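Listing S7. Sequence submitted for prediction.
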Amino acid sequence: MSVFTGWRAALRIAGRDAMRAKGRSALVVAMIAVPVLGVTALDVTFRSMTETTAEKLTSQMGSADALFADQQMGPLEQMPDGEMFQQTDPDAPVSQPPPPVDVTTTFPKGSRAISIQSVPASVTTEYGIANTDVYEFRTSDGMARGKTDLVRGSYPHGTGEMAATELFLEETGLSVGSTTTVRNYGAKFKITGVIEQPDDLKSRALFADPGAVIAPWKAKADHDKKVLPPNTTPKEWLVKGPDGVGVTWPDVMKANKSGVLVTSRQVALDPPPDSEVPLLKKTERPDWGSSGDWSPALLTVVSMAVLEIVLLAGPAFAVGARRSRRQLGLLGTCGGDRRHVRAVVLGGGLVLGGVGAVTGVVLGVGLTVAFRPMLENWAGHRFGSLVIPPTELLLIAAIGLVTGLLAAFAPAVVASRQSILESLTGRRGVRRSSRVLPVVGACVLALGCAAAVYGATSGDETLVAGGSVVAELGMLGCIPVVVGLLGRLGRRLPLSPRMALRDAARNRGRTAPAVAAVMAAVAGSVAIATYMSSKATEHEYEYTPSLAQGTIAVMSNGDGSAERLPLARAAVERNMTVSGGHADFKRVWAGSDCNVYYEEENGCGTLQLVKPTGEGHTCPLKGKGARELAARLSADEHKKLMNSPACLGEGMSSQAFPAGEDQILVADANMLSTYVKLDDPAAADALAAGTPVLLNPAYAKDGEVTLTAVHKYNDRDKENRKQHPGKARTTTDRLKVYVAPAKYAATPGVRLILPQKTADRLGLHTQPAGSVYAVSQPPSNAEQQRIDGALEQAGGGFWLQTDSGPGQDENTLLLVLTLFAGVVTLGAAAITTGLAKADAEADLTTLSAIGAPPGVRRTLTGFQCLVVALTGVVLGTITGLVPAVALRLVDLREALAAMRADPMESAYTPIVLPWSTIAVLVVGVPLLAGALAAAITRSRQSLARRAG
């Protein structure tokens, strides 16, 4: 019999076994197909999202031949793709921009063009008002196709119609047929359709025909001084060249002489020789790198994914081989040798691996097509086209096929070593575990940990990643020993958990791979989750809030709106739920108001809170000796100094309130309770008695602060100038203050709260500036628009200041990682439990024969599943912390280097464990696995004949 004939027989036997055990076969196919599906979908999505040069040009200029734009820099030279350009004469002065160019004069003869220009505007919405960009662009023109497309409705035509993007309509509550008003000059427009920008699906914009908005707005501003002129962007032109000619490279160079940058489709797709590009004679062609290479990180991920599938599917093939051992024994009685037994088991891997690979590829492509709109919305742009790369998909399918063979390899070797007698009688010989593997695993584990630690201390992220993978592989070799130790833990436990632990230790060949699979999945999830949680905490620490948490503020711009603040407060209270009271505040200044008289140098007064010098007052991280001190500090010591009152406010700080750089406000005790959250009666009594409250102790010396005021009055400030003739007067006052505890020094935007009577006594000027409210959550888009609309109805001149805090984008990924690790854990535990049930039939029969209760069968199965899941999760959690901690140490090294170069840079690099994720994995998932296994197991078994 030839080799091929033997394999044909083996494949036929494997195929019949797969059809006979449909449940097990479906499980193996799913294990192989799901990763193949994921990789296929990822590959097709990535290739489809990566735009080609032609697709980029279409999203940039629609179906036009070129995009012309005046760069207002005089004659220029450019690369053929228009991505890089510079002045023809680099030494030419650029202080005064050249006069605008009539771009239409640079078009090739016989061309047709349409213009694009945008202007920011305030428009009315269903809820109130909102700010958006209005584009003057003839979207109905054929040249716009690909740059803008009509989703529904009709294109705008004339001066009274607009189209909107979908996201704009969703956030404003408007719809096709609604009317909106451009508030800047009072014109009304009807929304006729929904426009989509394929390269920016998250755009919030309005579209009108050229001349519908900007020209009448300018005309209104020319005749009405209350109307501000539009702040337009430079005009660009989409150009359709002469038929059959397009826009050539000579046309581009001719336009360059007038200072016009041209992006030509024809030139970008078929660039001229380098010798014809003048800019290449002065500079080198930029090298943007390649994104198509397989990086070591990607190869590592693929290798670990293959290992994961092998670890998961291997026990399933072992189940099949165990249940087919009588058939395999009969094969030996018919003259088959070990090679044929191995071929049958490997044939099962080949059959199921092939089915899984093909299924995964087909489903991956199909799901990508089905979920294409969702993927495009997530990415924020449309696919240029659906790209299905056949070579890459064949490679992915081949990897799936090879993975099936690798998963079946170990069970095939074990099955071929069984004697024919053992296979026919169902008995198994006793085999000792390898003593070499754990020793090698321990050495590899130590080597991997050492490499990861060295990479962390030397700042080599590649060495950290490689060392972490090696350490995980070493831990895989140690798992049989760990599983063997489990049997010794059950001596004092009840019957079911004791039998489950001893069964796991006795049958390490099926327990260890499942534990390893769980460990590998959980390790990756915990590593990523730990690193993300740590980075999120770091970003939260570095975030500079504009307002205290749980507050919003309505503020006046001062142009006569201060008198209408009661109306503004009513607008806020009517359109948003406030959880507490409100606190009114005033801005304070000396001399003439710098908000009004800012045009002249030294044309207004100043008010300064003088900071004392010395220990406890001067920040040691600034000035002389700061770098020497920073070189000796650890990250924690530096953080403590940065958070000290002396250093707070020396770097970036909130300027939300109109309190100036010294952050001085005039307010009463309500400000303390509503905004500062300082619930000390002594502080409120101090303000009532005319004593200022200082929130930063570093500015106080002996319980007093120093205020220096320059009472400079501008000649144009006639009313105050008449009362204060003569030269500018400088005063320095020492004020007794209530000094708040140091923790209040970090209050955003406020450093010193002055009572009104103290400001009057010092000869300072005050004006109502706004109110602060305590709220349970920031306003939604609809609430924001309602409030903005109500503030405009109150006379305008107000704005609502909010702070949403640092983003929480990592929460979704943490949930995905937890679900992934949980599913792998449940799957691996289920496989091992199925194999354990196949092995333990004799034990269960014996238990029934000696009178064990029927529930023992359920509890034993549940605890077997629990042992595998809990062991793998605990080991995976410990293993996953190694790369996460090592990478954070790399970040710490870089942060310390940046801090020692600039001592005011933060070096805070925390390591934060994702306790919620770990709790779900360590406690929730194993308990769920055990409960499910117990629930689906029958309490009573069918009668069986006596073996032997």
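Caption to Listing S7: primary sequence and predicted structure tokens for the chain studied. DSSP finds 29 helices and 23 strands in the chain. Residues 289-295 have pLDDT under 50 and may be disordered.
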